[in-house]
Amino acid sequence: MVKVLIASRIHEKGVELLKSNGLEVSMVDEPSEDELAELIKGYHGLIVRSKPLVTRKVIESADKLLVIARAGVGVDNIDVEAARSRGIEVITVPEATTVSVAELTIGLMIAVARKIAFCDREMRRGAWPKKHGEGFELSGKVLGVIGAGRIGASVARIAKHGLNMGIVYYSTTRKPWLEEELDAKYLPLDELLKTADVVTIHVSLTNETRHMINEEKLRLMKRNAILINTSRGAVIDTNALVKALKEGWIAGAGLDVYEEEPLPRDHPLTKLDNVVLTPHIGASTHEAQERAGVQIAEKLVQYFKQKELLK
Predict the structure, then answer these.
(1) CA pair distance 232, 137, nearest whole angstrom
(2) Residue 280 catalytic?
């Protein structure tokens, strides 16, 4: 019988789909590296989310593993090179969380522009911060999208059609369809940063994108611009961002991801009024979790059927 280890909880519909197709399923919630290295023995498939880490040690401990399935988009918690060296396939379901991440991005944009979190905090402590709550409208402003894949394009559509924003974008490849659909303009990264009123980041974490937004890049942005990141924390140099927010190089930021997660309680970002912080909840909606669980289960079933391990 084909055995699958679910090492980070997925939606129950995904679990039932696996079982109904004849797979033997075991579940453990985010084990440590040593625990997973021991547990993985005997399993043909492994399902994870953004945790746990699937390191070389884990992969080399596996004796029957054929496939690692990430119920989401990124694979930075998986040593893909180690997996490929052992002939282990890595599969994802990037489309499952697109809507949820895009909507959170728009929410952070509005929250920062209108100082919603700041005003909420002040009112809860008994203040009436009307004089300090002046923000700015997004309508008519320019949105700069860094990374125009599924999520970046979805954010651009909402911003264009829902908020009447102009769209500029930077991507490793031009997107003529996006330019035609949204009257979007391609710009080199530095020009985008100089031009946009709101900058939103939607890239994978790679050696090339790590700290792609550093002190030099932040100094290019408008002083009244805001920066949004719902991709991966390490694409921004956190120390440089804190400095930029404190010294007013930019007006504010909305962050869902961080270089260190969970974000330490006394982190400098938590002391700033011009930043809105959420705890990596981009994909944390009922709908996205159901889609991710079901879609990753469907892909695993299809994979094992193609390998003729399932009828």
Answers:
(1) 27
(2) yes
